[in-house]
Structure formats: C-alpha cells, structure tokens
Protein: Actin-related protein 10 (inferred by orthology to a human protein)
Organism: Anisakis simplex
Amino acid sequence: LPYGALQITDALYAKLAGTNKGVCTYKSPVERLILRYIMEQVDSARFTAPEGLFQPKRWGLDIKALHQLVFEAVQLAPIDSRKTLLRNIYLAGGASLLPGLAERLEVELSTLAAPTIHVQVHVSPWRYNAAYLGAQVIASSTQFESTCVTLENLDEFIEQLNSAAF
C-alpha cells in the first residue's frame, strides 16, 4: 500500500483487489464500514504516520504542514521566479522515499498555487544514496582535510563557535 496515498480507501480497495485475484466487490455500506475498521484498526499506521507531514495535528503538533512550508518558502522568492520554483521542486532525503509523497505534495501545492501555475515535484532515482553521494563529493574535495575538525583543533573550533554571533 502506498504510504502517501491520495485516497486511502481507494488504496485499500486496490490492496484487497490484489489479494482477491483482481476482483473487488466491497461496495455496500456494510463492506465499506468493515474496510474503514480495517484501515483504522489494523493497518492505520501505514497511512497515518506519513499523513502527519500534511496534517501535523494528527501527530499532536501545532506546526505548519509540509506543503504549507514549501509554499511559504516559494513565496519568499522574487515574484518573477516563483512559477519556475513551483515547477522545479526536488525531494531528497529519507522521507522522500515514502511512496506517493511526491504526488501528494504536488496535489497539495496545486491547491495553494494559482490555477494557472503548473506545480511539479521531482524525485531522483538516486535519492536513496544521496547522503552517501554528497559525503563522497565533499570527502574527495581538495579542501576537505583543511576543513575537518580534529582532536588537536577541537578546542579552537569550539571557541570560534562560542564567539560567533548567530
């Protein structure tokens, strides 16, 4: 089941249809009620855990949702580049591996953006290894050795951090 499913009931139907040789006859009100119970009681964590990214109140958090934060970040950019930014949103990191996340983010952002703006969210096929690839690029840099903090210069580094104004 896709964790970031746009329609949870449809995803559950698809799962049940897959286990029933492609035949899904769960359409009566009673059968829908049973499906809802299964979804809420048995398999709800698969749906509700990532749903907190889009509805943080489900996690008991009083913060903005992922799509709201992304949209606000785009709104901070100059007005002439906002359309381009909304067409070029790239996901990276572990949470980007949630199936359906890009599609869901695209739908949620489309509801916030003007109807004439085409929102497009991209995911890299290499995002699973993105942290490793980034670390490899940094480690192979010629300046890597000089920017590392060693035991010998740790005290000096901490002193610099303490005196820095953030």
